[in-house]
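At your convenience, could you comment on the folded chain following this short note?
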Amino acid sequence: MMKTFQSFLAVLLLSLPILANAAISAHEFDNPEQEELFRELTRELRCPKCQNNNISDSNAGLAQDLREKTYQMVKSGSDKQEVLDYMVARYGNFVRYDPPLTPAVLTLWIAPVLIILIGGFTVWRLARRRKDAKPALDLAEQERLEQLIKQTEQEK
């Protein structure tokens, strides 16, 4: 029992520095519209480091920097599109959870389907060609084949 308590106490003491660094940043806004815009933007922007979290959910240093930059831009009066344009210019379309439809995105979605369709069609054509193809025999080979067939039938 005492060993369990000591282990728990050791884990608690070792995690104190981590908990101390997990400070929640509180931002002051001039009006509720700015606060709502900030929350909306932090939900729409993806953390480039975490890749599967938005910047409001990520604790990565880069996400904290992005939140701070978003806060500064919203506080200075930038609208949603200006903030998104800045982030995309700096980090690329990947920073948005809902990237715009571009030729590159279309290529990423359509290319695998086209490759599978072309490959399937090619396999189908080759199989059909092989099935329809008859071996070309010259006259001597055909006569020899007919003799072998007759011999086989006679032996049965």
Notes: Residues 103-132 form the longest helix (30 residues).
